[in-house]
Amino acid sequence: MAKDAVGTIMITGEQIQQRAKEIGLQIAEDYQGEQIVLVGILRGAVLWMGDIMRNTDLDMIIDFMAASSYGASTKTSGVVKINKDLDTDVEGKHVIIVEDIVDSGITLSKLKEYLESKNTKSVRICTLLDKPAGRKTDVKVDYIGFEVEDKFIVGYGLDFDQKYRNLPYISFLKD
Ligand code: IMP
Ligand code: MG
User: Fold this and answer.
1) Which H or E element spans position 114?
2) How far away, in angstroms, is 68 Cα from ligand 2 center?
3) Which residues surround ligand 2, an ion (CB under 5 A)?
4) For the whole prediction, is pTM greater than 0.85?
């Protein structure tokens, strides 16, 4: 794989494992005695989804959604299209959306709104990365792995043009 476009390691796989353990314990404490539905957002969240799943000791169902957003860079009311919907009925359930990165927050605020419209008991967000510099909405992010600076991040699920998702660490694209 051509890695010349990729910069130095920003966050190691080991650091991510450690953080997933901490967040998994926190989620298990927050939802003690309850069942939760983890909803992973394809495709970027796959590795982080696995980390959160295996570190959260609760009665759990998992499902996945895929979405794409348009106009996200120009306005706050970007249109989000759902390309793969849930197979699970989430009515009356506690949902945690598992995402790779929150940038503008447009995708997540729309997905959260959509899931809340299904009469869920609660909807929270768990993201591997938070890029606050890009934020265009006031969506609340409940569980954050790491905050990152305003760079184009790749690795550990995150892509550029569908590449680099399999890097076992977080890096960035050199310009
Ligand atoms: P948002 O709607 O602007 O928050 O964008 C969310 C989606 O854009 C994420 O789920 C990613 O797929 C993608 N994205 C945002 N920033 C980056 C980045 O730095 N690297 C790779 N993908 C990104
Ligand atoms: Mg992406």
Assistant:
1) helix 106-116
2) 8
3) 44
4) yes
* pLDDT tens-digit map of 95-144: 999 999 999 999 999 999 999 999 999 999 999 999 999 999 999 999 99
**If phi over 0 gives left and psi between -120 and 50 gives alpha, with beta otherwise, what is residue 133?**
alpha
* Architecture of the CATH domain 14-161: 3-Layer(aba) Sandwich (3.40)
- Tell me: the pLDDT tens digits for 5-26? 999 999 999 999 999 999 999 9
Confirm or reject: Cβ of 158 under 6 Å from ligand 1: yes
Distance CA 44, CA 88 (A): 20
Among 87, 103, 150, 161, the one annotated catalytic: 103
Ligand 1 contact, 104 CB (< 6 A): yes
